[in-house]
Amino acid sequence: MVSTTTETLLDAKANAPIPPLTISSLHILLLLGIPLIWFLSLQRRARNLALNQPAPHTLAELEQPWQTNDWATLFGLIGLSNDHRWSHIPLWLYHSIQHRWHQPSRPWLKRLLAMGVIPLYIQDGGIPQHRVNINTFGRRRRFPWFTYPLYQQGKKRAYFEFVVPYPRETREMMNFLNGIISNRIADGMADEPVVRDNSYGVTVRFSPPERGPIYYSIDNPPCRADRPIEVGAKSGMEPLLPFKADRVLKGGFGERCNALAQFMRDFDSSKIPLLRHADDTIVVRVEAKHYGVCELDQFVFGVAQDVGLPVLWPEVECRNAALEELERRGLSTDGLRPFMLSEPADYH
Q1: For the segment 252-277, what is each residue's pLDDT rounded down to a tens digit?
Q2: Is the separation of the CB atoms in 275 and 208 below 8 Å?
């Protein structure tokens, strides 16, 4: 009788429902435990990766290959830096070039580089609307003690700056520069081409010396300094942008032209000695006179194509020379490979 009663009590206890408080506690432990386990596993993986990674190179070490005295190596380094979006290159404004370098519909920058034209900076024309402040709502230490998203809508004039080493070395290069300087854009009306005021202003700067003389095209002078490169409005609320008054976001250049050092990190042109000490270089700025949609890299390549500018620095040869220089400097070349290479015959 005692045995039967004990078995009955044990069965009843085993089948008894778990108190609600116990269920809630288990849920809380599970909810807290899973993220904790995930976090610890990530930390362990990060430690293992850090132990297996070689020591990071300093910026000075990464800039050493750019001290090369071989032009093929320099053109190869520029190509590789765009291919792989390097941020440790001496040309500190190069993000504008790298962004367009990877657009399948815009192969012009790659082709111009192979022809001996080194892109420095590019801005497209048009009326883009974009968020210019990536911060979300948050706190800050100073008044107004919080951050908020910021949006911008404006209109831009396109401009393209590039450098050409030894521009007088070949007749084709001289024809190319003359074609840029004397450009006139013709719009077709019926069967008669009509030249309108939509040509591109051109300003050039020669060196040496480093801040050499500035010239501009008589046929196509640059816009006056009081014609801004960019005007628009900013607002923390995107729907309000069309109702806000425009203001100057970036002033015009006028007859000024940037020297080579202004495109270099720390404004130090000695970071690329070949360009600094070349006997003859020319910095060119081509700018649109209107605020419409415009991609000037395509226009500049079209001029190069029309005058028959040849491929001076084939991509494969230059990139191989750059890889050899990286290895000689003790820098890793893992994952660096030429891609999307074009044959010279494909450039025309």
Answers
A1: 999 899 999 999 989 999 999 999 99
A2: no
What is the C-alpha separation between 185 and 295, in angstroms, rounded?
A: 14
User: Could you write out the DSSP letters of every residue in 20-35?
Assistant: HHHHHHHHHHHHHHHH
- Exposed e or buried b per residue across 266-305, where buried means at least 16 C-beta atoms within 10 angstroms of its C-beta: eeebebbebbbebeebbbbbbbbbebeebbbbebbbebbe
Rounded Cα distance, 287 and 290, in Å: 9
Length of the chain counted residue by residue: 348
d(CA 185, CA 300): 12
How many angstroms separate the CA atoms of 195 and 101, rounded?
A: 31
Gap between the Cα atoms of 246 and 229, Å rounded: 13
Count of C-beta atoms within a 10 Å radius of residue 145: 9
Bridge-based pairing state of the strands 129-133 and 150-156: antiparallel
- Show the 3-state SS of 286-317: EEECCCCCECHHHHHHHHHHHCCCCCCCCHHH
Expressed in angstroms, the distance from the first to the final Cα of the chain is: 104
Cα–Cα distance, 91 to 272 (Å, whole number): 9
Q: Which of 100, 282, 193, 253 is nearest to 109 (CA)?
A: 100
Do 157 and 321 touch, CB atoms closer than 8 A?
Answer: no
CA of residue 108 relative to chain centroid, distance: 15
- Decide if 268 contacts 277 (C-beta within 8 A): no
pLDDT tens profile 148-200: 777 778 889 999 999 999 998 889 999 999 999 887 654 444 444 444 445 79
- In the numeric block, the tokens 């401009």 are attached to 159
